[in-house]
Each structure stands twice: as C-alpha cells, then as structure tokens.
Design goal:
3 helices, mainly alpha, single chain, 2 domains, 80 residues
Length: 80
C-alpha cells in the first residue's frame, strides 16, 4: 500500500511540475504574433477561440498552422 501511495504522490507531483510549462508554452505561442490589420486580428481571435479548449495531441500543430495563416493574411493586407 505504501508503494502505491508513493507512486500516486509522484505522479501528482510530476503533473503539477509540468503544468506551468505547458500553459506558458501555449500563452507564448499566441502572444508572439501581434496583428497590424483587422483581418489578421479577427483571424487570430478565431484561431485562439477554436483551439482554446482543444485536448488532442495534434492541436499544437493545428494552432501553429492557423496562426501561420493569420500572419500571411496580415502580411498581404499590409501590402495593400
């Protein structure tokens, strides 16, 4: 019984240590891009709201590609 309690305690401690790292990486990815046009701002808002509650393993890649599209929209709109 003591071994199982130690394993459970270790798992909880490991999860608590990794949680801030995961949350900070998500925040850094969305804050890195500052849109200059309204179209890009709407795109960023849509990406953030779509992938905010996503729990799948491929969500990071999907969010990154969505933000890439927003950067492209911003770049194209800025040229006009």
């Amino acid at each position: 019984m003591r071994i199982l309690a130690r394993i459970k305690s270790f798992k909880l401690t490991a999860a608590m240590c990794l949680l801030p790292i995961v949350l900070s990486s998500c925040a850094a990815a969305s804050a890195a891009f500052v849109p200059n046009t309204m179209a890009a701002a709407r795109c960023k808002r849509d990406c953030t709201s779509t992938y905010h509650s996503c729990r799948l393993a491929n969500c990071d890649a999907s969010f990154a590609s969505c933000m890439g599209y927003c950067i492209d929209i911003d770049r194209i709109a800025s040229r006009k």
